[in-house]
Fold each of these.
Amino acid sequence: MTTTEDQPGAKQATVSTEQLLDLLRSMTEIRLFEEETQRLFMANLVRGSTHLCSGQEAVVVGACAALRPEDSMLCTYRGHGALLAKGAPLDRTFAEILGKADGLCRGKGGSMHLTDLSCGAYGSVATVGAHLPIAVGLGFASKYTGSDDVCICFFGDGATNIGAFHEALNLAAIWKLPVIFVCENNLYGEYTALHLSTPIERLADRAASFGMPGIAIDGNDVLVMFDAVAAAATRARAGDGSTLIEALTYRHKGHSRADPGRYRPQAEVDGWLKRDPIDIARAALSERGVEQSALDELRQAAAERVRDAANRAVAWHEPAPESRLEDVWA
Amino acid sequence: MSEVTFRGAIQQALAEALESDDRVFLLGEDIAAAGGAFKVTEGLLERFGRERVLDTPISEQAIIGTAVGAALRGLRPVAELMFADFSGVCFDQIANQLAKYRYVTGGQARVPATIRMANGAGGGFAAQHSQTVENWFLNVPGVKIAVPGSPADAYDLMHASIVDEDPVLFFEHKLMMNVKGDIEPDREPAVLGRACVVRPGTDVTLVATQLMRVRADEAAETLAESGVSVEVIDPRTLVPLDVATVLTSLERTGRLLVVQESPFAGSWGATLIAAVTRDALELLDAPPRIVCGDDTPVPYAGVMEEAWLPTPDRVVAAVEELMRA
């Protein structure tokens, strides 16, 4: 039942040039958002830690574009991009990372708990793999209520070694739930290389033990991501159950703010930098005849939007200390 | 008014909730076809079908996670962990996800899930199937904790837990399943966080839950014969903890005894005594006392487990010492 495809072919006609421009716009905003976050962090305006998704933008952008607004999404603590891809506003996302009163979570969650229910972003979960069982519940609710909404759940390669992964995929499989499990395989679980933690190379193969389709695809090609998730969503909406998608991608930065990522061989880093998902999308647009100047303008406009959003969020006020006592039974 | 067992009271509340609210569904290990390890959900599969009464694999993380996700979408899951001790397997789902979802999302998300678990010693189930694990969660803001000590409370609190907008951990003492009592189905729904005075008295305030409430009441009966008037209070929920009702009682008695099954360290009884001494030391005519399980795992052999669990005799002795203090 498992079909592992490293190169699933170019069925890219499903995305129009206009749509592809939107996807590039979204990926560019996320890249610039992460760069701005890094600057804010270095300026001591961001507390704790940050886990940047630079380099992995195509996974979340391609996937979310293939879904409907009412579909639910769960992601990891490396979730800035996933939130933005699902439709969270730039300024309120910045504001949450900055701990502001008008942040998405009123300053209570921060970078690792970004949530925006209004666009179906049901949460960023900061213990590895814990959100996979919750995704099962979101999928269950769709089936239980007779809705054809699906749930998409992003997680890292590291999560495939935690018990919750296996419990969640097993239950989703036996109940045939509309959940799309997307493994963002960036080859490192925090600081440890995948081959040191995992005895198999193709994580999609794990789907076989749940009788679930598993595919491995190029997670740096936004069109490939779009097609794979669109197909999985069609299956899920038709009542045919879950799919495991392994999206091969790479983190341009270290694991978190303090990590320069020196444990990664330079040749490997260089190789992946040459496969930058934004460059790949730009090349695809050029091939379709979009002028270089239009692509440059797109980037310029995105940079302005991101900078303006960051500036607004920085100026917003901090939460009242007393608000810490709200939103919980205490 | 009708007389039912503790088990029957919970079952009736679950059945009524399933009947009246389509959002309610049950999930857990062996709860459907087998009716649950303690037969609490017996017959519910037949009445409500396998769409709403679901057997799961032995996957505690998946059970709680599914409840969390379904509740996020507006359903009212009632999940069962066969033995409360198994909450250790899914501690992250309960303590980090279920409890914190509302807070870390700044109030966007509510998680109205109820988690049922069989707790308590006395059944010869040994160390991994006998604990009063409700104490593990006292330090986890975000969950409410219900510990019913009678069929009426089990019935009322189950209804209150299912309609509550916050997650509730609901503990069912496995030695109380056959205890009988009256329930009042037509009464106003109960509110979580209100203690009840099980037995009025004037000399000593005795606070206990579940099996220890039963034993405390027995001890109070014995003491009444020798002229000592014990007021027995059952907090019914540990979070919220109704300290006010205890303080009102202490205004009359001036003497506090907590009887609990669990070890002292980090327990609800220790918390209650700390709250009373912090807020109302002047009400106390004697140092508060606690009768509790030993700070050891629950032993297996009958004579050891009997010695481990507080008995009515130990309660009587503690009250007498408190009266002399």
Amino acid sequence: MNQIPAILIDGIIYSSWLFVIAVGLTLIYGVMKILNVAHGSLYALGAYAATAFGGYWIAHGYPPLGSYGMLVVAAIAVGLTAGPLIERGLLRLVYGKEEVVLVLVTYAVFLILEDLTKLAFGVDPLSIPQPYGLLGSIEVGDLIYPTYSLVLVLLSVVVGVGLAMTLNRTRHGKILQAVIHDREMAAATGIDVNRVYLVTFTIGTALAALGGALTAPTISVQPGIAAEVIVLAFAVVVIGGLGSLGGAALGAVIVGMVRAWAVHKWPEVELFSVYAVMAAVLVMRPKGLFAVPEARKI
Amino acid sequence: MLREHTTRILLAALAILLGAGPFLPKWAMFMLNVSLSWGTVVLGMMLLMRTGLVSFGQGLYYCLGAYAAGVLYAKLGIGDIAVMLLASATVTVAVSTVLGLLLAKYRDIFFAMLSLAFSMILFGLLVKTSELGSTDGFGLSVTSVAGVPLAEGWDRYAVFASAVVVAFGAALGMQRYLDSHTGRLAGAIRDNELRVEYMGASVRRVIHLNYVISAALAGLGGGLVGITIGHVDPEMAFWTTSGEFVFIAILSGTGNVLAPFLGATIFETVRSFAYEYSPNTWQLVLGITMLLVIMFLPGGLWSVFTRRRAA
Amino acid sequence: MAHVGAPRWLMGLFLAAVLTSGTARAQEPVRIGFVTFLSGPAAGPFGVPARHAAEAIAESLNAGKGPAPHNARGFGGRPVELVVIDEAGGTTKQVSEFRNLVERQNVDYVIGYISSGDCLAIAPVAEEVKKITVLFDCGTPRIFEEASYKYVFRTRPHATMDAVAAALYLLETRPGVKSYAGINQNYAGIDQNYAGIDQNYPGGQDSWNDFTMAMGVLKPEARVTTSQMPKFGAGQYGAETSALMQSGAEVIHSSLWGGDLEAFIMQAGPRGLFKKSPLVLVAGEPYLHRLGSAVPDGTIVGARGTNGVFALDGPLNSWLRDIYRAKAGHEPTYPAYSAANAILGLKAAYEKAKVAKLQRAIPMGANRGVKEETEKAYASGPSDEELIAAFEGLIFASPSGRMTMSLGKGHQAVSGTAYGTTRLVDGKVTVTDIKRYSLEKVQPPEGMASADWIKGGMKPAK
């Protein structure tokens, strides 16, 4: 029996999932220099919102295919509410503090959101399994894969390419890149940095929520998923180089492939795989694979 | 002003804690005991932070220190507090001397992340080691202090007193170090490494030394927690343990060597009462407390004192 | 010293009246610390059901509505008051909180702990502070096999039973099984602290080790095809599913729990894994009602004892089901039974000790000072020493059946257990083909370590 194709397919599926959960994190870091610990909580909020919106849709007997739309709607809803609320209500008050203090601020948000989601949704796991099975499955050799997973792979590619195009080809994207490169210089040229921050954080939040919403049909949504996701997302983003879109993609592929290989060939080391890769990459390239060049300041 | 008084305050605290220990309610003594141990770990983080580095992997040394003490008891039957703490310090100094060679090159978030990766690798190794109880860990106990056997019923106090003495020694030593030539370089490195190099000092060597000192303190703190709790497990190396130390360090502020102990005590008190009075929402309480401190006391809790002085 | 003997039956009546009705004056409540997961992933499947059960039981007992033999109001007439705290946070915090419960909140007894790591850390502390502590849901056999305690009791059988019975059931229902695989959490039984958000993994590795050991003895020719120990996948089991499918195992052993188990079944089910290789879920019972039709037909499930669907009908069982349903809105699962075992076991020991104490206060044949002596004895309740003496080796009735405190020098409960196979009937999961195992078959005798007992061929305890 040949394991290689299975490792490749499993690796690609897992990588694309990693990319979706990590891309918002790297975007926010790149623009705002905030390593957002609450990213996992926003992922969890997206997942919870998906069970609520999707559950409502299906309970009312609307066409089941529409539940996919509801997943996206849930993500956007979380992005548009939680994003501005956190950025305007809290982060705006602490800009300019040290990076590590900002990490702690988002850690506090993470703690607060953990209890708030518990108060809102309870501790019992929730689920919205319908979208997962709706598209049927595809046979690959001796294995069967759900079409949903393969659609997710396509979707992550669309998200990645879309973001890259926006950053490189549009005016807004160029503004964003200017802010990423040098915030003060960008502000001096008349860019409204505050607005850029608001928009970036909202998009980042929506991406985190999208990750959660798209994952919701495959898991049972429960307290604790936020913390599980955030460590993985950190690892991916750090391996790739903080703030780099291409880096996040490459980091996701590396972690995804290594983990799939470990599961198939050497299940005992699955526990280490992610951190071993992270340590190895950082030892060889201290700032990750694609370090974003910083403006030199004296 | 306060800084000049620090030595006197430390001596007074040492005398008061040692004297009052036997008369404190047991839960209070225990809470102080844990807080002093954590304070020792955070004192080491404070040194790193003064150098401009934040470690998200201090749990590596905290856990190593605890396991060093635990293994002595569980595998070799040695229950002497002094020997166990010596082992905690030795092991952590050895490991950090090696890892420091590598980590001294790293800065900012990359230093944080690489140290996190190392501590998670230790976590994974311990989880896989069934001889050491795997994820459940194992228990340990104390029988003597520096060769003097403990009288029945005094072991709690002996552990508490050891924590007081270690914390006192660490704080006093740290204050002396911060006033020394090398110690003063920490702040300079944080502000501008290039200038320090031009002055002829080796940034890497200073960072390496500070890293080893902070690791030794984390190891001592871990050893103390191990003998206080009477149980060690791999979770001590998990990233959230390190995260909590960062939390306490920020809460405390880096203003004074007393700050970490104050911060740890307040953290432990808030957490404990939050557990008791709002068992369902204690994380909410902790999160809001942290935000309030960051917003209104940007220099950490310690700035309450310095502000009053300025007024 | 001429005594006129008071008739014995009269005294018995008097005692019974004292125990069941309580005295006229208000009684100091018995304060019990109850420690269970209120946050993190273990809260939903274990922590909160246990809390619901504990609260429902306390209310019912305080109202004097418990069925015989637990019909005395509260604990021997004294109302019960629960002080609930969260088990999340890891062993360091739990040891602190335990001390706070005992020394700051002055609880009379502590019932608690789902995580094996917490139990291992708490037991020596309970011994040190001399506080009677009933471990209610953790499974590791290490507690009483590696140490012996005076103040620590555990009212649920340890987890060796679950693995051994799973192997017995598997071989009875599929005698020809030639290969099997495992998917278990990479954990011995600890909780994992995520920034105060805890994860507790009751016995992933232990369960698998015991199971393979038992299979090795009972069916040496059956081979293990793969053992998956997922951890850092955050609920993504795609690669594990592929590996299990390619391994071609006839059955898959799993002690996954909570959201991880649900995610695994939801992801692997549509890929046809369970059609090829049915599941053996060591602790699958709490999820049956939640997963519903997603549970693959033919799954072998257990409930860590004769709990939940495996509990026999009887007044105690229907009492628990009624009060639990009223509180939580669904049928009780095994953590609710664990909580019931702990509270009822402690209550039975308390009342037994009290009766013994009252009998001592009224020496046979006394006729003077009976009232005063009785009231004095009554007012104070049993001392810890008296309660421990009553608890050791106690046999008590619980909704799970008869619990016997016979291992660990009378501190560790044993009972029989049961396994069954799921079948979907009209869209509802039912458990059929239930086989029951008496306690001698699935538990080591006193004084023998579980691992040695399994390796030695699992000879029945005498």
